[in-house]
Specification:
The termini are far apart. With 348 residues, the protein is an alpha/beta fold. Helices cover 36% and strands 24% of the residues. The chain contains 10 helices and 14 strands. The radius of gyration is 21 Å and the shape is globular. The longest helix is centred in the C-terminal third of the chain and has 25 residues.
C-alpha cells in the first residue's frame, strides 16, 4: 500500500470493473482498497488475490470504507441511485458509459457533482484515443478549412445470432440496444469533435437478431451554424471482428478519414507546417502513439483513468468528459428515440 495515496473503491466487479480495477491500481498514487459486487464468488476471489475488502452492496462500501473516489461499473439503470449516494458522501466518481438512461437524470447528477465541486468523468474512451485527439487538433487548427459535413459510424459483431430475451442487452430498461451500448460512443465522438447537435432528424432503428431492442441505428444531425452530419451504427455486422469507429469529415480545404488506427488526409493544397502534401496523406497510430505506463485492453483505457486520478489529486473537476458531457450524449439519444417514435407515426 502506498502511503498518502488516493483511496479508491470499485462498485461493480464485472468485466469492466475488473479491467478498471487493474488499471487504476497501477497508478503510483492510488490504492484500490475495496470493491462492492453482489457475487459471493467474485468477492472471495478479490479478497484473496487482490487484497481488497469486498462488500455485497455498494451502500455498505460507502458507509464502512474511508474513500476519496469510486469507479462505478454497474448497469446504467442502477447508476442514478448509486451516484446520488456517492455525491452525498462527497466522493469523486468515474462511471462507465452511457452514464444513466435519460438526459434529465444525467443533468441532475451533473448539477449535484458540480455544486459540490466533485470530480466527475464518464468512460468515453474515444476522447483519449491518439488518432481522434489529433483529428480534433486538426479541426481546431483549421487544417481542412470550415467543416461542412461529417459522418460518424461504428460497427461490431456483438450480436450476430438470436441473443434471446434474457440479459441486460435485451432491453432498453437495462441499457441494452445498439443506441445505448454502441451509438453512445459514436455520438460522444461527434460531441467531442464538432459539438453537440442542435437538431436530430431522420432517425431509424432496425432489428436484425434482437427481439426488443435495435441492432442498427441511424440519424441525421443539424447545427445552427449550417454544419450537418450523419450517424450509422451496426452491432450485427460479422465482417468486423472488433468494435470499430469510422469518421469522415469534409471541409472547404480538404477531407479527413479516421478510425482508431490511423488517419487519411486529403489536402486541396500543401500544408507544409503539418508536413502534409497536396492530395492524400497517411498517418498511422504508430506516428501519433503516446505510450501508456500500464497496458490493458488499450492505451485509451489507461489514459482515461490516469486522467481521472490526476484531476482528483489536483482538485480540478473539469475532466475531458464530465457528467455534463455524458448528459449531452443522453440528450441526443433521447432525441433519436423521440424522432423515431414520431417517424413511426408518420409512416403508419
Amino acid at each position: 500500500m502506498v502511503e498518502n495515496a488516493l483511496r479508491i473503491g470499485v462498485i461493480g466487479a464485472g468485466r469492466m470493473g475488473v479491467t478498471h480495477h487493474c488499471i487504476v491500481n497501477s497508478h503510483p498514487n492510488v490504492n484500490v482498497v475495496a470493491v462492492a459486487d453482489p457475487s459471493v464468488v467474485v468477492n472471495k476471489l478479490l479478497s484473496k488475490y487482490a487484497g481488497v475488502r469486498a462488500h455485497k452492496d455498494y451502500r455498505t462500501l460507502l458507509d464502512k470504507e474511508r474513500l476519496d473516489a469510486v469507479l462505478v461499473c454497474t448497469p446504467p439503470a442502477f447508476n442514478h441511485e448509486i451516484l446520488t449516494a456517492v455525491a452525498d458522501k462527497g466522493l469523486h466518481a468515474f462511471v462507465e458509459k452511457p452514464y444513466t438512461l435519460s438526459s434529465a437524470s444525467g443533468a441532475e447528477l451533473a448539477r449535484r457533482f458540480e455544486e459540490k465541486g466533485l470530480v466527475s468523468q464518464v468512460g468515453y474512451i474515444n476522447r483519449f484515443n491518439d488518432v481522434f485527439m489529433k483529428t480534433k487538433a486538426f479541426i481546431e487548427e483549421g487544417l481542412i478549412g470550415r467543416v461542412i459535413r461529417f459522418r460518424s459510424e461504428m460497427f461490431s459483431s456483438t450480436i450476430i445470432r438470436d441473443p434471446g430475451e434474457d440479459g441486460w442487452r435485451a432491453t432498453h430498461a437495462n441499457g441494452g440496444g445498439a443506441t445505448y451500448e454502441m451509438a453512445s460512443h459514436a455520438i460522444d465522438l461527434i460531441d467531442y469533435l464538432m459539438g453537440k447537435p442542435d437538431h436530430v432528424m431522420g432517425s431509424s432503428l432496425s432489428k436484425v437478431f434482437s427481439k426488443n431492442v435495435e441492432d442498427v441505428v441511424s440519424a441525421s444531425f443539424l447545427y445552427r451554424s449550417g454544419l450537418a452530419g450523419s450517424l450509422y451504427v451496426n452491432w450485427s455486422d460479422p465482417s468486423f471482428r472488433k468494435p470499430t469507429n469510422k469518421l469522415e469529415i469534409f471541409g472547404t480545404e480538404g477531407k479527413i478519414l479516421a478510425d482508431q488506427h490511423g488517419l487519411k488526409i486529403f489536402m486541396n493544397a500543401p500544408a507544409p507546417a503539418h508536413g502534409l502534401n497536396a492530395g492524400w496523406n497517411q498517418l498511422y497510430i504508430t506516428d501519433l502513439f503516446n505510450p501508456a505506463p500500464f497496458y490493458l485492453r488499450g492505451v485509451e483505457f489507461t489514459a482515461q483513468l490516469y486522467h481521472f486520478v490526476d484531476h482528483v489529486r489536483r482538485g480540478d473537476p473539469q475532466t475531458r468528459c464530465t457528467f455534463a458531457d455524458g448528459a449531452a450524449v443522453l440528450d441526443t439519444i433521447d432525441g433519436i428515440f423521440r424522432d423515431f417514435d414520431k417517424n413511426k407515426q408518420v409512416v403508419a
